[in-house]
Design brief:
Blueprint (H helix, E strand, L loop, with lengths): L3 H8 L1 H4 L2 E4 L6 H18 L3 E5 L6 H10 L3 E3 L4 H4 L2 E5 L18 E4 L11 E4 L6 H12 L5 H14 L9 H11 L4 H8 L5 H13 E4 L2 E8 L4 H10 L7 E8 L2 E8 L6 H7 L7 E4 L2 E7 L6 H18 L9 E2 L1 E2 L2 E2 L5
Parallel strand pairs: 1-2, 1-4, 2-3, 4-5, 5-6, 8-9
Antiparallel strand pairs: 7-8, 7-13, 9-10, 10-12, 11-12, 14-15
Helix pairs in contact: 1-3, 3-6, 3-7, 4-9, 6-7, 6-8, 7-8, 7-9
Length: 348
Amino acid sequence: MALELSNFLETNKSRLSPLLILMHDYPDPDALASAFALQHLAEIKGGIRSRIVYGKEIGRIENQEMVRLLKIPVYKIRPSDFRQFASIALVDTQPGFENNSLPADRTPTIVIDQHVLNSMPPIEFRLIDTKAGATSMLLARELLALTAQIPVNLATALVYGILSDTLNFSRMAKQETVETYLRLLSFSDVHVLARIQNPRRPRRFFRDLANCIVRSRVRQRLIVSHLGPVENPDVVSQMADLLLVCEGIEWAFCTGRHGDNIHVSLRTSIPEAGAGLILRDIFSDTRQAGGHGQIAGGKLRVKSGQNEEEWANAEEMLTDKLAERLHLQRNTSFHPLVQDGTQKFPRG
């Protein structure tokens, strides 16, 4: 219900300030917009001071441009932050998820997310809606119900958060989300939005894209690409998004090696396919993967980062389990997407 979050912030403002707003380790536009909106809401409802933080890196150039152009005050987390801030808000993630830097001995006061509800300790306030389309939607509802005017930078951030997480609404068709987007659009700067969506890309992006295509294999309706070592895990999800538009494909699966982990992304063009549930099914530890609707991600730790065979075995194990989980025909096999410089789309 609208204004539940606003009422909680106002009622508990004296003990919530200062508030640490923690996103997942590699924040995407939805997380950045949601955290930005929560910071604004906390300020206008109770004068609550806050700091927005993340654990690892803002990787994609679009996300970096979003932060720069919209002046979103985000910082890489410091160990001292958990000592200085008594209250923590988790945004676009949950306790127990493998994608955030919340210490095991800390319980957040607030959790705002759109992903499937995870087993968690009692939380004072939680706002979780798996059908919202984007976590940005949950904050946008509050703001639109509360005020007649939303700052242009914040409105632009929320618009981009919704667009990116719904892949321009191709991942969902909930009318409320579309209507909220249109209301936000009237407050936003569409020229800045265009600059964020179409940045000048570094040459490494095209190296990553070429590597992804060369390594791609197709089996029936599934395309898989093991990228090998990547500079940033965000590359994995970006390449999975791009591969999903391949003709005849319903599922795209990408992996990338970073640190001691294999980062994975699963995408599907099938509405309500339950990508998160499917990805968790191929992991021994289901806490290592998650998602919602048509998108999912996770990571698998590899014990010996110097052992090529161990990396390759782990990648193939995930691929085989996924093919089995998707019920691909047993008498079919993977074929290269690109052969002799010509794209081919095998039927089986």
